[in-house]
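Student: Please help interpret what follows.
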Amino acid sequence: MFENFKSFAKPDTDHRPVSARQKPADLTRLELAQPQSCEKDNKRLSSALSRINSLLSPN
C-alpha cells in the first residue's frame, strides 16, 4: 500500500531554510504589498500577552 506513495514523494535536496530559498525580489514585493502587517501583528501579540498575563496573575 505504501509503495504507491513513494512515487509522489520528491526528495528535498535543498537543506537551506525556506526563507533562504526565496529570492530577495520576492521578499521585497511581499513587504511592499503588506507594509502594516508588522504593526497589526504587534498589536495582536501584545493583546494576547496581556490576556495570558491576566490569566496567570493571582487574583
Remarks:
- The chain has a mean pLDDT of 71.
